[in-house]
Amino acid sequence: MASTGLNLAIQFWTSRGWGVVDVNYGGSTGFGRAYRERLDGLWGVVDVADCAAAARALVSAGRADPARVAFEGGSAGGFTVLAALCFTDVFTAGACRYPVADPQVLLAVDHRFEARYTESLIGPWPQARALYEERSPLRQADCIKAPVIFFHGLEDRVVPASQSERMVEALSRRGVETELHLFPGEGHGFRDSAVRTMVLEATEAFFRRHFGL
Q: Is residue 44 a contact partner of residue 79, using CB atoms and an 8 Å limit?
């Protein structure tokens, strides 16, 4: 759930002249059970549609340049970024922190908090195998045309760094512009303040370069 409290990462962007929309897409908490359950079975569909709708609304209102709409997120949000780049034409650049590139990888997560989590978000395994493959950004990477930058910790035991590495390989083979930054000692979520700062600065530099700013 995106709150209205102070967010220093958002301040980084707005203080440099960027507009930011932080989307409480279907599945977010704080809006009742029905809203939270909108994502059940539809991860990679509802979240993508809601974020794309928010971006289109800003473009239609003249508050965003349609040629300069970037999308960034981490972990499950990184999955939404990649899925949006696969299945919509709204976003013109992406940035992913330790993203889920292929949801099948989460089936191997063994800690109780997220064990079998994808079965409620996509479907039971292996019965829904075709759905997993259809929603997988890694398997649909040929659809991505926008430049993407990736950041991943080498000690990540929730989403292995190989997820980002394989996405970069798939995009590079097709000539899509991409970057990959790997961080020794970092896991799922960056703890070192120097790393977090570097991620923000590298992301903005990547967007500025590709947007001609």
A: yes
Structure tokens of 123?
């479907």
Q: What is the pTM of this model?
A: 0.95
- Residue ranges of the domains in the chain? 66-211
Question: What integer pLDDT is reported at residue 111 of this predicted model?
Answer: 56
How do residues 97-149 score in pLDDT, each as one tens digit?
999 999 988 887 655 556 677 888 999 989 999 999 999 999 999 999 999 99
**Secondary structure of the chain in the HEC alphabet?**
CCCCCCCHHHHHHHCCCCCCCCCCCCCCCCCCHHHHHHHCCCCCCHHHHHHHHHHHHHHHCCCCCCCCCEEEEECHHHHHHHHHHHHCCCCCEEEEECCCCCHHHHHHCCCCCCCCHHHHHCCCCCCCHHHHHHHCCCCCHHHCCCCEEEEEECCCCCCCCHHHHHHHHHHHHCCCCEEEEEECCCECECCCHHHHHHHHHHHHHHHHHHHCC
- Domain 66-211 CATH superfamily: Alpha/Beta hydrolase fold, catalytic domain (3.40.50.1820)
Peptide bond between residue 126 and the one before it cis (omega within 30 degrees of 0):
yes
* Model confidence at 174: pLDDT above 90: yes
The pLDDT mean for the chain works out to 94
